[in-house]
C-alpha cells in the first residue's frame, strides 16, 4: 500500500511516516505544494494525506488537482483548524475524511484502513483476525462464523483494535476514537474499561479467544501472542 | 420620550408661560390705562364743577354729568386733599353691589364748605374689558396652536435624516462584513454625525476582524507543537524497551498535552461565541436532539446502569446555530451522566417553554453561583477541564436563554428557560 504524506512540519511528517512504515505501508513524504504536485502527476497512491496549510499553497487545491487527474486514491485532510466550514469544503471537493491536529497516530491508521477497505473494489470488504470476521458493509461480527451482537461502541472499539492489531493503544486514543473531543479523560477511562470487559466477554462467549491484552500502565493491545 | 414630543412639550410650556405672563401684563396695563382714563374723566368733571361754582357762584344741581354721579353734601372741615378711590354702592334696581371709582373734594361755596363726590361705575367698562380679554385669549390660543403645529412639522422635517441615520445604526452588525452606508447630509451636524459614525464603525469592524484572526491564528499555531508532542509520545510508548516508570512519564506527558489541546479548543470556542462568530441559526427541535444525543451516550447509560426517562409536553423549537445546539445539549447530558451514581437516573422534561434536566448524584463541592465560571470543577474530578458548563452558559447567554442550577435532596437540576416575550 502506497501512501503520500503532504505535511510541511518535519517532526510531524517523520512521526507519521515512522508509524505507517511499521504498519507495513510504503510512505512517501513531501513538504511543499509544488513537490506534491509533481508527485501526484508521477504516481498513483492508495491514500493521500494532505495538510491544508502548506507554505506555498493550499492543500485543498492539491485535492482538486488529484480529483481532476481522476485518481482513485483515498484522501484524508489533516488540519490544525477545527473549522466546520473547512470540513464541509474538504468533503465537498472529494476528500474522504478530515482529521484535526493533534490526533493519535493510531486514529490516523484506523481512518486510512477504513478508506482503503472502502475503496477496495475487487474484494469483499472484510476484516479477518483468526476466528473473528467483521463485515463493515453490514456492520456484522462473526466468531467462528457465528454472529455475535455488539453495541455500536463495542463494534467501533473492535474495528479500532483490528485496524491497529499488535499495536499498543493508549486509553486516550481509544477514548478519543469512541467519543471524540467531547469527553473528559478521567471519566472515559472507567467507561473504556467497561466496554473492553463487555467486548471481551462477548467474543469469548461466541467461542473466540481473548486477544485484548492490557499493557500495564499504558493501554491495551489486540494481539494473538 | 420621543424627541419631537419632548420639544413640543417644552415649546408648549414655554409658550404658555410667555403668553400667560404677557396676558397678565396686558391685563394690568389695560386696567391701569382704564383707571387712568376714568380718573382723568373724574378730574375733568371736578375742574368743570369748580369752574361752574366760580362762574355761577353756586353749586351745580345735577346729579349726573356724562355718566358721572354727583353727590353734594355739607361738610365741616375743609380738606385740601382730593381723594380718589374705589368704592362699592348698592344698586336698588339691579339688586347688587356695583363698583364705582370715586373722586371726593371739598370746596367753599358761599362761605360754606361742601363735600363733593364724583362717582363713575366700572359697569360697562367691566363688560368691555371682559370682551377684550376673551378675544385676546382666543387670539393667544390660536397663536399657540399655530406656532406649535408649525414648529412640530418643521422639526419633523429637519429631523427626518436623523431618524434615517438611527435606523442605519441599529442595523449595523460588527460581526457581518458590511460597512455602514449613510447618504450625504445637508445639515452640518448630521453630516458630522455621519462622518464620525463611518469612522467609528469602520475602526470597530477592522478591530473585530483582526482580533478574530489573531485568536484563531494563535490557537492553531498551538496545535502543531501539541501534535508533535502527542505523536512522539505515542511512538515512544510503542517501544518495548521502556520501563514501566518511563512509560508512565511518557503517558503523563501525553495526557498533559491532550488537556492543553482541549483547553485550547474550548477557549477558542468560548471566544468565538463571545465574538458572536456563530450565525446561521436553524430551528432546533429540542426533543429530536436530546434523543439523538442520549442514543449516542447509550453505552454509558448502560454501563453506569442509569435510567433515562423523558417527557415532552410541548414541541420546543430553539432558533440556534446547530453546532452550538449540539454542544449545549451534549455538554449538559454528559454532565448529568458524569455526576451520576451507579443505578441512578436522568429525567428530561419539556413544558412551558422550559427544559428541565434532573439527575441523581452526590452533591458537588462547588458553589452553585460559581458553577458556570471558567475552570470551576468538582474537586473529585481534577482532570476535568472545568469549561464544559462555561461553554453552556456562554451559549445560553448568546441566545438569551435563562439557565439555573440547583441541588436538593440528592437531585441535581438544570433548568433552561426561554425568555418570556
Please describe what this structure looks like.
Chain A has 225 residues and is α/β, with parallel strands linked by helices. In chain A, the strands form 4 sheets. In chain A, strands 2-1-3-6-7 form a 5-stranded parallel sheet, with helices on both faces. In chain A, α6 packs across α8. Chain A is globular, with a radius of gyration of 18 Å. Chain B is α+β, with helices and mostly antiparallel strands and 421 residues long. In chain B, the strands form 3 sheets. Chain B has a 5-stranded antiparallel sheet. In chain B, strands 7-9-10-12-11 form a 5-stranded mixed sheet. In chain B, strands 6-8 form a two-stranded antiparallel sheet. The longest helix of chain B has 54 residues. The two termini of chain B are 22 Å apart. Chain B is built from 8 helices and 12 strands. Chain B is rod-shaped and about 155 Å long. In chain B, β11 and β12 form a beta hairpin. At the A-B interface, α1, α6 and α8 of A face α3, α4, α6 and α7 of B.
Amino acid at each position: 500500500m502506497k501512501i503520500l504524506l503532504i505535511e510541511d512540519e518535519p517532526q510531524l511528517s517523520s512521526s507519521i511516516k515512522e508509524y505507517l512504515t511499521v504498519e507495513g505501508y510504503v510512505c512517501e513524504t513531501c513538504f511543499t505544494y509544488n513537490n506534491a504536485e509533481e508527485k501526484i502527476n508521477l504516481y498513483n497512491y492508495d491514500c493521500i494525506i494532505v495538510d491544508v496549510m502548506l507554505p506555498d499553497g493550499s492543500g485543498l487545491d492539491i485535492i482538486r488537482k488529484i480529483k481532476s487527474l481522476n485518481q482513485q486514491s483515498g484522501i484524508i485532510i489533516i488540519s490544525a483548524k477545527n473549522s466546520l466550514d473547512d470540513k464541509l469544503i474538504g468533503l465537498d471537493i472529494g476528500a474522504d475524511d478530515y482529521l484535526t491536529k493533534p490526533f493519535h497516530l493510531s486514529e490516523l491508521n484506523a481512518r486510512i484502513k477504513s478508506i482503503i477497505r472502502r475503496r477496495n473494489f475487487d474484494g469483499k470488504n472484510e476484516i479477518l483476525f483468526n476466528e473473528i470476521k467483521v463485515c463493515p458493509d453490514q456492520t456484522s461480527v462473526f466468531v467462528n462464523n457465528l454472529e455475535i451482537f455488539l453495541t455500536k461502541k463495542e463494534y467501533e472499539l473492535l474495528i479500532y483494535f483490528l485496524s491497529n492489531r499488535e499495536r499498543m493503544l493508549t486509553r486516550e486514543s481509544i477514548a478519543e476514537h469512541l467519543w471524540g473531543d467531547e469527553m473528559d479523560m478521567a471519566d472515559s477511562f472507567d467507561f473504556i474499561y467497561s466496554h473492553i470487559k463487555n467486548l471481551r466477554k462477548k467474543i469469548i462467549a461466541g467461542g473466540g479467544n481473548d486477544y485484548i491484552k492490557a499493557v500495564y500502565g499504558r493501554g491495551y493491545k489486540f494481539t494473538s501472542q | 420620550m420621543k424627541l419631537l414630543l419632548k420639544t413640543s412639550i417644552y415649546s408648549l410650556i414655554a409658550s404658555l408661560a410667555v403668553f400667560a405672563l404677557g396676558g397678565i401684563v396686558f391685563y394690568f396695563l389695560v386696567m391701569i390705562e382704564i383707571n387712568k382714563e376714568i380718573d382723568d374723566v373724574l378730574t375733568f368733571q371736578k375742574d368743570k364743577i369748580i369752574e361752574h361754582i366760580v362762574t355761577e357762584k353756586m353749586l351745580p344741581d345735577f346729579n349726573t354729568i356724562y355718566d358721572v354721579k354727583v353727590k353734594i353734601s355739607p361738610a365741616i372741615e375743609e380738606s385740601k386733599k382730593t381723594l380718589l378711590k374705589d368704592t362699592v354702592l348698592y344698586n336698588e334696581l339691579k339688586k347688587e353691589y356695583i363698583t364705582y371709582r370715586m373722586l371726593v373734594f371739598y370746596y367753599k361755596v358761599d362761605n360754606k364748605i361742601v363735600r363733593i363726590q364724583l362717582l363713575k361705575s366700572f359697569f360697562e367698562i367691566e363688560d368691555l374689558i371682559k370682551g377684550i380679554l376673551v378675544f385676546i385669549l382666543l387670539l393667544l390660543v390660536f397663536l399657540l396652536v399655530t406656532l406649535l403645529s408649525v414648529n412640530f412639522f418643521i422639526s419633523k422635517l429637519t429631523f427626518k435624516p436623523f431618524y434615517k441615520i438611527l435606523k442605519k445604526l441599529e442595523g449595523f452588525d460588527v460581526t457581518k462584513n458590511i460597512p455602514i452606508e449613510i447618504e450625504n447630509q445637508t445639515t452640518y451636524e448630521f453630516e458630522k454625525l455621519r462622518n464620525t459614525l463611518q469612522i467609528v464603525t469602520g475602526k470597530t469592524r477592522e478591530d473585530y476582524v483582526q482580533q478574530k484572526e489573531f485568536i484563531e491564528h494563535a490557537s492553531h499555531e498551538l496545535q502543531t507543537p501539541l501534535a508533535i508532542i502527542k505523536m512522539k509520545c505515542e511512538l515512544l510508548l510503542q517501544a518495548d524497551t521502556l520501563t514501566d516508570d518511563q512509560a508512565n512519564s511518557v503517558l503523563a506527558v501525553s495526557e498533559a498535552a491532550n488537556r492543553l489541546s482541549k483547553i485550547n479548543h474550548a477557549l477558542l470556542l468560548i471566544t468565538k461565541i463571545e465574538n458572536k462568530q456563530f450565525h446561521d441559526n436553524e430551528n432546533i427541535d429540542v426533543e429530536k436532539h436530546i434523543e439523538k444525543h442520549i442514543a449516542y451516550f447509550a453505552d454509558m447509560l448502560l454501563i453506569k446502569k442509569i435510567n433515562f426517562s423523558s417527557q415532552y409536553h410541548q414541541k420546543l423549537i430553539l432558533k440556534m446555530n446547530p453546532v452550538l445546539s449540539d454542544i449545549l445539549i451534549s455538554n449538559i447530558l454528559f454532565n448529568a451522566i458524569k455526576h451520576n451514581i451507579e443505578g441512578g437516573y436522568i429525567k428530561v422534561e419539556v413544558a412551558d417553554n422550559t427544559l428541565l434536566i434532573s439527575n441523581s448524584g452526590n452533591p458537588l463541592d462547588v458553589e452553585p453561583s460559581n458553577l458556570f465560571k471558567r475552570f470551576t470543577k468538582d474537586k473529585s474530578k481534577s482532570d476535568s477541564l472545568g469549561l464544559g458548563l462555561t461553554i453552556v452558559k456562554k451559549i445560553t447567554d448568546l441566545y438569551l436563554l435563562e439557565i439555573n442550577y440547583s441541588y436538593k435532596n440528592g437531585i441535581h437540576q438544570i433548568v433552561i428557560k426561554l425568555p418570556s416575550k
